[in-house]
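User: Predict structure, ligand 5'-deoxyadenosine.
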Amino acid sequence: MNRVYIKTYGCQMNERDSEAVSEMLRGRGYSIVQHEEDADVVLLNTCSVREQAEQKAIGKAGYLKRRLRKNPNFILGVMGCMAQNRGVELIDKLPDIDLIIGTQKFHQVPDHLDNIFKTLEGQGPKPSTIVDLENEQGSQNTIVAHNLDKRKVSAFISIMQGCNMNCTFCIVPKTRGRERCRPIESIVEEAHELVENGTKEITLLGQIVNSYGRREIPFIQGKSPFVQLLERLNEIKGLERIRFTSPHPRGFKQDLVEAYRDLPKLCEYIHLPMQSGSSKILKKMNRPYSRERFKQLVGDLRSVVPDMYFSTDIIVGFPGETDQDFELTRNLFEEIGFEMAFIFKYSTRTGTPAAILEDQIPKEVKEERNQILLSILEKASLKRNQNLIGTTQEILVEGPARKGENMFVGRNRGFRKVVFSGSERLIGELVPVKIEEASVTTVRGSLVIQ
Ligand code: 5AD
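Assistant: Predicted complex:
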């Protein structure tokens, strides 16, 4: 009666939230199962960034309910962004749903499930849908639980929640609320705990990580709270690598650029959402930087770390994006030479300012622009990988590769996946691998015997 399966849609933040919910549930005696067929409870942790992500989760919920109707005690919950975005309206679409849990209420899931099970055990009828969507002060401090029985070579830490930026295309300010940060000490403590359990790499998560603590924590010697946090983490013995996602170009100041020069554990890979290469479109998106400023920031970072890896988010087909605007995006995208990118076709989100703009772009045009950027990305990515051939890379070994006997996979500091022949005991170690082959997504090499 207490087997829970959690399916996660969307970003790393959602993954981390699901992980924390799993751990809280384990602490209450629930078991977390890997297959939905084995579960008494299925929780969908959802994404609202694009229409398609919501449709997927709604489709899945409908399917689960139909398939599991045989078991009247089967429990289905929707958590996270879509729950927050759609609220009680979800009951119209999914009348049998048991739980609707907002983004500030993840920590309440164990209590809600306990209550449902108590009623069922007392032979009572299943309660009507539980809806828990309020804002809750301090909820950012509740995403801390990790499964420390299991060693995680690389771990996420949620340092803040919410977003105050109001990009005109984006639903996240509605789904995640205003920015709230965790104290530096608590984050450092969490990192220590992970490292004591064998974690070598941490990725700090937040909607806009570089606005971490801007209102709560004073600058010290021109250093922002986020850079102060990075400095503290860099001191942790046994921690090897630090990453973060995502920063906003706006608050990306010289102190953060210099952190790449000064903090050896900060990896030379950065996900820096550009969204568009046209200053006119950026303005309409309410992204407060220009094409030139973005270019300059990339240049500043490259002057500090010449072989920095860059990744980005782009939206094609934002309302009013002309051929010339897209050409500016295409051109800057190619010039910067991103090794990784998420390219999104603009998706209308009800309630956002861009949803009511004129000049919505036809689907076919979005698709065409999407394909153009994808093919540029493929070339840049392949070229960067091929340039690794012959070099020896420091690889943090994560685990067995998906294919191949004795094949293992890890990443270099630039976040490139590297496959090589190794052994179980190397998991969690930093090893030198000489690169021999490269494709668009993966590189292969051989362990260098020291
Ligand atoms: N349509 C398409 N892409 C979007 N994103 C956010 N909102 C939308 C939307 N309405 C993309 C942005 C953001 C990423 C997480 O999702 O590129 O950086």
